[in-house]
Amino acid sequence: MWTLILGGVLFFCFAYVGIGIRSYYAKRRDIYRDSVSYIDYLKENIGFLKTPIGVLTRNFSKDRKGEFAKMLNKYVALIDKGCLSVESVNKMVASPYIDKERQELMSQFFYGLGKVDCDTQIEQLLRMRAALLPIAEHYDKKYRTTGVLAYRLGILLGIAVMIIAV
Question: Which residues touch 70 (CB under 8 Å, ≥6 apart)?
C-alpha cells in the first residue's frame, strides 16, 4: 500500500516539474508573441485613428491574460498617474521571463511611446517589431522543442519511477 502511495507521489513530482518547465517556456513565448501583436495593434491605430497610447493600451489588454497583459496594465497605471519615469518603466518591465538585455530594449520601447509625432512613432514601432519578431520566433521554437520535451520527459520519468517504486 505504501509503495503505491510513494509511486504516485513520485509520479506527481516528476510530472509537476515537467509541467513547470513547459509553463516557463510558454510564458516566455507568449510575452514576445503578445508584444509583436501589441506593436501591430499600435501601428494600425496610431496611423489611422491617432488615439492616445493609454487608451490604445487599455483597449488591447482589456480581455487578455498573461505576463505581457500584466505589464501593459502596469503601464496604463503609470500613464494614468502621470509618473512615467525611467525607473518606474524599468521596474514595470522587470520579469523573470525576460532577459536583462531584452528588458532594457522593452524599457526603452515603453518609455519612448507617445513622445514623438505620429510618423516617427510608426517608424519606431516598425524597428521594434523587426527586433522582436526573431526573438518571438526563437522562443516559439524553444517552446516547441525544449518545453514540450521537458513535459513529456517529466511524465515518462514519473511513470518509470512509479513502476520501479511499486
Answer: none
pTM for this prediction: 0.85
pLDDT along the chain (166 residues), means of 10: 85 93 94 93 81 85 90 89 85 89 90 85 91 94 94 93 84
Domain containing 140: what range?
A: 2-165
Could you give the maximum distance between any two Cα atoms of the chain, in Å? 71
Q: Please state, in angstroms and rounded to a whole number, the distance separating the CA atoms of residues 19 and 145.
A: 14
Give the whole-angstrom CA distance, residue 70 versus residue 76: 10
| Grid-cell match 510513494, residue found | 6
Q: 522582436: which residue's cell?
A: 132
Count of CB atoms within 10 A of residue 91's CB? 12
E strand map for the chain: none
Residue for grid cell 514576445: 32
The number of distinct structural domains making up the chain is 1
